[in-house]
Amino acid sequence: MEGYKHRGPVNCDVDFDPSNLKGKTAIVTGGANGIGEAYVRALVAAEVTVCIGDLDAAKGKILEAELPGIKFIECDITKWDDQVRLFREAVSFSPTGKIAYVVANAGIIRQDDVFSYSVKNQEPSKPDLSTIDVNIKGTLYTVKLSLHYFVKQNGQEPSSIQEDTCLVLIGSGAAFLDCLRIPQYSATKWAMRGIMHSLRRTSFYYGGRVNVISPWYVKTNILSEEDFAHVTDVGVQFAEAEDAGQCLLRILSDTSINGHSFFIAARKWASRGYMDLDLDDYPGNTLLLEVQEDQVKSAPVSMGLFV
Ligand SMILES: NC(=O)c1ccc[n+]([C@@H]2O[C@H](COP(=O)([O-])OP(=O)(O)OC[C@H]3O[C@@H](n4cnc5c(N)ncnc54)[C@H](O)[C@@H]3O)[C@@H](O)[C@H]2O)c1
Q1: 101 lines ligand 1 (CB under 6 A)
Q2: Which residue in 82, 196, 257, 288 has its CB near the most CB atoms, within 10 A?
Q3: Residue 187 near ligand 1, beta carbon < 6 Å
Q4: What is the pLDDT of residues 96-147, one digit of tens each?
């Protein structure tokens, strides 16, 4: 594996062969429901061993009983100890003792106290920032543990014997669109792209890759029925959870895909329901390319492991 290089958007309109995933092990946070469940089902179909870390034990146990080669581990991603246990149990459950893929999918959206206006003449109340706790803090715990195991498995000397690993972060339309009245959620989803940008040029040291999947509206439990009914009423087409599952397999099966953001799109925008947005580089912008080069050269040397 070589260092990060922008090679243009990944062609998502092609057939691909996920057979190289067979026998690998993946962790999916928030995999008990919704789009996370679709990632789990796609991975299981590709004969990947999957560990789900989720709060929803009832649904997790149902999936564990239904699907072959999966383990449910009750886990609140905002709790460091829970995630340490998730990764430890996943390593024990893995037939190879290794974790190849991590999908940091667990996420929430709430009515945003940062946006809502306190009634006139009242003092503003301290906003509830639990969306940040789950979507950023919880995900950063997942990132930290992923890197720990990837480095432990592969070392930090790039070589042909390192086994491919991939971290997949879950963004949203809110990671690149103007989404109204949800500054906190938008901040958390832009953050997924920030994490990816921060890691994609060093991940090759441990044979790793990092990518983002950003879903458009998909009917799940994340919003209320009323919210989803409104999407339908205004004539907006949904994306499909199964297409997100295929997008994940497309990313994992091609070891050259690193540092990209994929959009799980309504089928009217993408024939297979997913596309590479090619948002994360500035080809042709000579100023930004030069600034980026200077940024890489001048990155603080005291910041750790990779030089
Ligand atoms: N559905 C959409 O329209 C949509 C659009 C864009 C992005 N997304 C993103 O996709 C991801 C999955 O969303 P979804 O629509 O499937 O939601 P969902 O609510 O259907 O499922 C989320 C899962 O995460 C779990 N979870 C929540 N908080 C957790 C925590 N603290 N620890 C462990 N597990 C936790 C829930 O129990 C649930 O199983 C989220 O990151 C979300 O932001 C969804």
Answers
A1: no
A2: 196
A3: no
A4: 999 999 999 999 999 999 998 877 778 888 999 999 999 999 999 999 999 9
Q: Give the count of beta carbons closer than 10 Å to the beta carbon of residue 27.
A: 33
Cα 7 off chain centre by: 21
Q: Measuring CA to CA, which residue among 27, 31, 56 is closest to residue 41?
A: 31
The token duo for 95 is 């037939």
Q: How far is the CA of 187 from the centre of ligand 1 (A)?
A: 16
215 lines ligand 1 (CB under 6 A): yes
Contact between 212 and 171 under an 8 Å Cβ cutoff? The reply is yes
pLDDT digits (tens, 9 = 90+) for 149-202: 999 999 999 999 999 999 999 999 999 999 999 999 999 999 999 999 999 999
Task: Find residue 25's DSSP bridge partners.
Answer: 49
> Tokens 């042709």 map to which residue?
284
Residue ranges covered by each domain of the chain? 18-303
* Nearest in space to 24 (alpha carbons), one of 127, 129, 101: 101
266 alpha carbon – ligand 1 mean position (Å): 19
208 vs 158: CA distance, rounded Å:
10
